[in-house]
Amino acid sequence: MKLHYGLDDLSEFDIVAFLPIILPIVAIGLILVLTALIDLYRHRERRENVLMWALIIIFANTIGSILYFVIGRKESGGR
Amino acid sequence: MNQFTVLVKKELIQLVREIKLVWFPLVFIFLGITQPVVSYYMPSILEMLGGGQGISIDPSMMAQSGGEVLASTLGSQFDQLGVMIIVISLMGIVQSDKASGMLAFILTRPVKVGSYLSGKVFSHYVFIAFSVAVGYIVSYIYTQFLFTGIPLEDLSIALLLYLLWVLFIVSFTTMISTIFNSQGVIALLSIAILLGCRVIVGLNPFLDTINPASMSTYGMELLVGGVLNSNVFWSILITLILSALAINISNTWISRKKYRID
Predict the structure, then answer these.
(1) What is the pLDDT of residues A9-46, one digit of tens each?
(2) Chain A within 8 Å of B100 (Cβ-Cβ)?
(3) pLDDT tens-digit profile of B95-152?
(4) Which of A28-32, B11-15, B196-200, B227-231 has the weakest average pLDDT?
(5) Whole-angstrom Cα distance, residue B130 to residue B122?
(6) Residue B87: is it exposed, middle or buried by C-beta count within 10 angstroms (0-12/13-18/19+)?
(7) C-alpha distances in angstroms, A66 versus A26, B61, B65, B88, B123?
(8) pLDDT surpasses 60 at B262
(9) Residue B145: what pLDDT?
(10) How many CA atoms lie within 13 A of B248 on its CB side?
(11) Given an 8 Å threshold on Cβ–Cβ distance, is B30 in contact with A70?
């Protein structure tokens, strides 16, 4: 059993074979994260905990941006 | 223009303003893609991580049919994370209007409570149904690419059955959102009750008939086996009645001014 992979093993992966399948997932995740970040940046003065949300969006990807859209946008007091 | 179309238009503007129009379909596409891809790569993932100690992968498990994969998209992605996301995004549907005083303001105008509620439920339902359908179709495209195809009529009937369950989710959440004032309570109650409905499917044939969540199981059965359950028509009828009842309860709740802003 081999559990540890180093950077050298990256070249052994056959990336081209599963790239067309993985790419849309990556793209959709990226779009979600980018939309969330752009929205956060545009409304940075009215949101609470901007830094916290930025970290959540970047590090908990997809779930983080969903959480931001659902909860984070409503926290902004007073329209 | 009558009140209904004006209110629907207002909801659509709100959807655009909250950029829900962008992220909601994307989330369902994401959920839809994940299941076929993960089931496709499951053998190699297990091989890489599982170690070789006496584990053998049953080759018959690897050859799933397209229907099974699509059914598990409905059953394990849309019915769990999907339901939660729908409920959480809908929890403020009436509650935020109550909290901001918008509801009291609208009701000072000559607007019927019925058209207010039906405009809300209709616009949100159409939008969510569209998102779910997009996610489902993307999942189908992937399934067809990685596994086998599915007969078109099974595919569309299963989707329609699933959308009936979504209709119940939307109207039920609207009812809970009308009755309670705190967002946390709304989300918790709706998620607990709806997922509870989903869990008890299959315990008892009678319960299945009156349980709206069994619509999604009928869809899954159709996708896997190609046969439609015999008492599906009663279930469709009861699901529609229950949804109408939920909307009706919130209607009377608002008309009798039982809601309170605090």
Answers:
(1) 666 666 666 777 788 888 888 888 998 888 888 888 88
(2) yes
(3) 888 888 888 888 888 888 888 888 889 999 999 999 999 999 999 998 888 888 888 8
(4) B227-231
(5) 12
(6) buried
(7) 15, 33, 31, 10, 21
(8) no
(9) 85
(10) 6
(11) no
> What residues contact residue B122 under an 8 Å CB cut-off, 6+ apart?
B4, B8
Residues 6+ apart with CB under 8 A from B260: B181
Pick the closest to residue B85 from B73, B77, B95 (CA basis): B77
Distance CA A31, CA A28 (A): 5
Best residue of A68, A70, A71 to probe chain B, by most B CBs closer than 10 Å: A70
- Give the closest-approach CA distance of A66 to chain B in angstroms: 8
Q: Is the pLDDT of residue B173 over 90?
A: yes
The predicted-structure confidence for B53-102, as pLDDT tens digits, reads as follows: 666 666 666 667 888 888 888 888 888 889 998 998 888 888 888 888 88
Report the distance separating Cα A52 and Cα B112, nearest Å.
43
Six token digits for residue B111: 């607007």
- Tell whether B113 is within 8 A of chain A (Cβ): no
B65 CB near a chain A CB, below 8 Å? Answer: no
- Contact list in A for residue B89 (CB cut-off 8 A) is 69-70
- Chosen for mutation from B19, B49, B182 (greatest number of chain A CBs closer than 10 Å) is B19
Determine contact: B51 vs chain A, CB below 8 A. Answer: yes
Residues in A touching B29 (Cβ below 8 Å): 28
Would you say B18 and A73 are in contact if contact means Cβ atoms under 8 Å apart? yes
